Prior knowledge:
The chain is of the alpha/beta class. Helices cover 38% and strands 23% of the residues.
Amino acid sequence: MNKINVMVNGLPGNVAIIIAEHIMKNDRLNLIPYSLTGPEIDQPDHRLGDAIIKLIRPEAREQVISEVTSAFGPFITVDYTHPAAVNSNADFYCRHRLPFVMGTTGGDRQRLMDCVHAAALPAVIAPNMAKQIVGLQAIMEYAATEFPGLFSGYSLEVKESHQRGKADTSGTAKAMVHYFNKMGIPFSENDIQMERDPEQQLTKWGIPEEHLGGHAWHTYTLLSADKTVKFSFTHNVNGREVYALGTLDAIFYLQKKVTEGDTGRAYSMIDVLKGK
Length: 276
């Protein structure tokens, strides 16, 4: 069986490193030794075990991508870069017809979808690659569709905590707010309470010290108007392994779609879970 070539963009970022390491350990995947990186990165390469990954700054990527394509042929691109780069990176992938898995949050998501459709290029786009959390989101989406207005009259509090380096509000929290909106709660994404202070995370939230540099804690609290009924939904993730495993599933799913000749559709992690 031929291995699937994969290019992981976002090195030397923490999540990109973990994804790349998992790819290197997988017998079905081959890590391409190139990675698109940000303009702030000065180092020319990054070592992963015995592999040296060349880091490609934005001004050099148009030239280098032809070299990569010539050397490795078709490949799947995985993006764990920065929210500010989401749309420019997606435009680049679409222009060069590179099927991609977008794990980076932020950016103009509608523009992202439009780019995929216009390019007739398959992609997997998800604000969260953790399969179990995506499953919870699917449950919430079902409730929002089947029981609109279920929580009318309730108030909502949303708190999320991530490592200091996460620049934007949690995409998962935003998605959950959308579901609660459909269930009758007028709540704005701007009202999501973000925590990025390690001292507060350690002392107030109780997040383990060893995971202050990589975690995702979320709590959604609903309270009835008379304060006699309270619901809480919590999902706390320490570390990044769960996202890496979900990303591998997304790679295999996308390769299947490419092989089938599927074009122009942006798939979600729910599609990946269904496997259809």
